[in-house]
Amino acid sequence: MTPGAHAVGTSPAPWVGRSRPSLEGNDIVTGAITYVTDRREEGMLHGYVLRSTVPHARIDGIDVSAALALPGVVTVVTAADVPVNALGPRDVDGPALADTVVRQVGEAIALIAATDARTAEAAAGLIGLDLTALPVVDGPAAAAAPDAPQLHESGNVSGAIAFSSGDVEAALADAHLVLRRSVHTPAQEHVAIETPGGVARWDADATSVTIWCGSQNPGLHQRKVARALDIPQESVRMIANPVGGAFGSRNDDPMPVFLALLARRAGAPVHVHMTREDVMAAGAKRHPFWTSIDIGFAADGRILGSAVRAVADTGPIITSGPNVMKTSAEMSTGPYGFDVASFDGTVYYTNNANAGAFRGYGVPQVAFAIENAITEAAHELGLDPAEVRLRNVLDGGDRHSLYRHRTTTSLNVRATLRTAVEHPLWAQRRQWQAGAVGPWRRGTGIAVAMKGVGMGSGTGDTARARLHIDDRGHVIIWAGPNHTGQSIQTTYGQVAADALGLPIETIDVRVGDTGEVPESGPTAASRSTYAGGAAVRAACDELVERCRGLGLPLATDAAGVGTKLVELGEAEVNAEFRLPDTDDIGIVPPEQLATFAPHRVYGTCTQVVRVEVNTLTGEVRVPELLCVLDCGTPINPAATIGQAEGGILQGLGMAIMEDHRVSEGIPRTTSLENYLVPTIADTPRMHTLFIEGSEDSGPFGAKGMSEVVVVPTPPAIAAAIRDAVGVLPQELPVTPERMLALIEEAPCM
Amino acid sequence: MTPATPTLLRPTDPADVSRLLAGARAVAGGTDLLVQRRAGAEMPTLVDLSGLAGTRPAVVRDDATGELTLSAVHPLTDIADGAARAFPALTAAIGQFASTTIRNRATIGGNLVTGSPAADTAPALLAAGAVVDIVTPDGARRTVDLADFLLGPRRVDLAVGEWVTSVRVPQPPAEGGFRKIGGRRAQAISFLNLAWQWHREPDGRLTGVRLAMGSVAPTVVRLRTAAAALEAQIPTQDVVDAAVAVIDADISPIDDLRASAHYRRRCARGLLREALLPPSPGERPDQYVTPTTREKNQ
Ligand SMILES: Cc1cc2nc3c(=O)[nH]c(=O)nc-3n(C[C@H](O)[C@H](O)[C@H](O)COP(=O)(O)OP(=O)(O)OC[C@H]3O[C@@H](n4cnc5c(N)ncnc54)[C@H](O)[C@@H]3O)c2cc1C
């Protein structure tokens, strides 16, 4: 049997498909776990980051003398002290510390280490900044203006991506219905429970640094630190967990660099822990988008063509901007198959909050435009909203509407939709509506989404695993992507136990330490279970194969076999999984494959949601939601449901309350008192269902799902609002104020 | 960074409080004060009033007059338990206040002394005609109408060294309620809130109509004009329209991060209209679809 082609269902595996509590769950619940920010080292100093309070200014001078003179202060680091003052290879990656200019409220200007945190903060207040205010680029429109101040030598355009599979306007000319609509989705903050921070320790003899700090990409952070400190990559060790949540925010985070700079200059371990207020100002956000769509339908609801244009604000530095837009481009046709599509997206630099990776990575923004258009088209055409979607669904193996590339056969949007429409939540939508009381109107909405798994074709996306068996028959597996709160090591252990046929207790999985784990890329792009799991599977299969070749009975005598392998010098296995490219790249120019990076494998999801809307106050409540997932084999079903529920709540937050507001370059939502995220009281009763399915290239048939679950929630809520009160919100979040304004503008009840 | 608080005094006898408060500041639930402290407010000595809760009941009802005495130092959870049906608007307000954990700490004293125009216990108390019982630094008592106690945002009629011991309201009528609008269903500062109480006469007329609204003026305010429009009337469509139409006379909302003045005006009308809807069988709990067999098995 080829790796990955393990038949699911025919041989019920003991661990795969069985819910297993996360390995560290007990320690989390009892508070016993030591998160990276809880770590304390002997002789540790406390660091503080001085940040800009203005959005755009020239730095004419920085005077640290008074800060240095404060008793207890050990060192102050400014741009001039950073060996290579850069967060990446390109100018637009931005400096580690602001040197000639600050371009954002919250941008780091200086680092202080002192004997205690209070002194470090006090010292920051003594740093003299000589700043000259510069005009503020307060959004994409300002960035694009002909006389706009240029935030980088390369200009204010951070990236652009355009593609067309044909003449959309010609296709729309024949359409029965053409909708031209614009939507806006807000900047969203991740609100990981643990704010960034950790500890770094400099070893002067070895000229090396060890950093305990959360990261979704320890290898990337290792390279960033090595660059800034101008030391070899091997001299940097990132130990990137346990961490209390990420959702994209530990991808672009400069904190490991700050820690390393401080530890080296101070010659002592240094601890830094950001406040929530610092994160609100300085942490990367979900890109705010302005998306418009022109889409045409035949009378029977079939989509004839669509043109999507998107504009995003990435703030002052590039972080993930153009990559996010790349994902938006691919997903601008939604989970639908039709003949002609185009996309045109531009990402701008501004003096607003920096935006970066966030679960869903550019998909929720464009999906809101498409799904809203489908919802509206269903009403206009007098068709059932689920039926319109079913008529357009992209089936496994179909060609993608924009790039015409071949999708995986495991793609099963149709089954998620069919399962959803049979569920009582959808089937009984009229009864729900009829039960409305007082000013509360009721509605039900449906939306569908798909999202690529992994970095896409042409990118060489690879995950690796290393395995060792000892003379007791115990196995250690070092694997990535890293744990960022989802307890991926628990899942890797299940894959390994079934692949090896060994008791799960004898398998120890280690992640997140660049000193031990082979480079496996980021915890991102819904790739961890799929790619990391497949690498673990490959390592295990190779060990099994090796034992078979040597005639060693691994499953029945692991200790004996381990002893023998150790003797033979054959006890270690290294394996990798390279994510397969699409078989057929369609109309994407081969030399530009990585530019568009179309996916072979997609996770998909349909959601049905009930809402109640108060027509007198504009309040929106979301009491119940169904999520039907196409994720292949759920290796750890409880963990998968947990991912779905968490993602849904982030989608719900984006839909009705979360809005990171910045005006004139100044963040206005500065804490969790005025930036609202859903609480348990706002949490709907959620039902998550898995459809039958298996992805051939994935471990035991699994594929990724943890981003796609965010995507349908906002448009499903919007559709439910449409069903309840007859107006379809095009701007998120739908606060009570926006809702009441919509009801009053268009009273069609 | 949070400034240090070197001294925390925890009296258990009310007679000790005034003496300890000299040069110090009171803390009850700490749910507002600790936030201020984290924001940098210096508080060298704190006197924790929560220990006084053990010395008396949360709510006392005068059997002769029906007057309720509400402790200013008990957690709101205890107040709601003690007042229950005797004060429906306050019980409803506490039900919508913050979250269980905050309600287990926060007090009426802290809520009123904070002087927030959005304070959620204030509308019900104001509508009920509450008076505030204050202990002065020499241990004497003074009593002030809540309407006079609330002076403006973060300003109340309380001198240094004084503390609030209780709040009293004349017997509230059986019909009353409270609604708040926030950005989410818990842990949210009110964009707007409304408390009401009235008697419904056998012929359907409303009498003793008292309305108070928060977050629409520098302090929580009575909606006297709207109440007058309802007084002794049957709340027919026309009467409701007339009452709603005059709300603007008593409110002066502003734009802030949470909501615009325009929304507050619109929503103020909506809230009053909602309060005047014929009494329904009661809020039904969210109706849930039972999980399918498939969900149960997975
Ligand atoms: C997460 C969160 C959610 C919240 N949600 C709400 C909400 O939904 N609605 C709402 O109205 N408020 C809310 N608040 C604000 C706060 O909880 C309330 O104002 C609460 O009633 C304060 O009571 P306390 O006992 O905790 O006051 P404390 O914090 O102990 O004190 C507040 C102030 O009052 C003074 N003080 C306290 N008691 C007395 C007394 N007996 N005599 C004299 N002075 C006194 C203190 O010196 C201090 O200045 C919230 C706060 C938080 C942190």
UniProtKB/TrEMBL annotation, chain A:
| Aldehyde oxidase/xanthine dehydrogenase a/b hammerhead domain segment(s) | 30-135
InterPro entries, from UniProt? Ald_Oxase/Xan_DH_a/b, Ald_Oxase/Xan_DH_a/b_sf, Ald_Oxase/xanthine_DH-like, AldOxase/xan_DH_MoCoBD1, AldOxase/xan_DH_MoCoBD2, AldOxase/xan_DH_Mopterin-bd_sf
Q: Which SUPFAM superfamilies does UniProt cross-reference here?
A: CO dehydrogenase molybdoprotein N-domain-like, Molybdenum cofactor-binding domain
* Region of interest called Disordered, as start-end residue ranges on this chain: 1-20
Protein name as annotated: Xanthine dehydrogenase family protein
Top-rank lineage group of the source organism? Bacteria
Q: Which PANTHER family does this chain map to?
A: XANTHINE DEHYDROGENASE (PTHR11908), XANTHINE DEHYDROGENASE SUBUNIT D-RELATED (PTHR11908:SF157)
The organism that produces this protein has a lineage beginning with:
Bacteria, Bacillati, Actinomycetota, Actinomycetes, Micrococcales
From TrEMBL, chain B:
Q: Which Gene3D superfamilies does UniProt cross-reference here?
A: 3.30.465.10, CO dehydrogenase flavoprotein, C-terminal domain, Uridine Diphospho-n-acetylenolpyruvylglucosamine Reductase, domain 2
Signal peptide per UniProt: none
Q: Which SUPFAM superfamilies is this protein grouped with?
A: CO dehydrogenase flavoprotein C-terminal domain-like (SSF55447), FAD-binding/transporter-associated domain-like (SSF56176)
Q: Sorted alphabetically, which InterPro entries does this protein's record hold?
A: CO_DH_flav_C, CO_DH_flav_C_dom_sf, Diverse_Substr_Oxidored, FAD-bd_PCMH, FAD-bd_PCMH-like_sf, FAD-bd_PCMH_sub1, FAD-bd_PCMH_sub2, Mopterin_DH_FAD-bd
Q: Where is this region: Disordered?
A: 276-298
- UniProt KW keywords: FAD, Flavoprotein, Oxidoreductase
Classification via Pfam families? CO_deh_flav_C (PF03450), FAD_binding_5 (PF00941)
What's the domain of life for this entry?
Bacteria
| FAD-binding PCMH-type domain location | 1-174
Record protein name field? FAD binding domain-containing protein
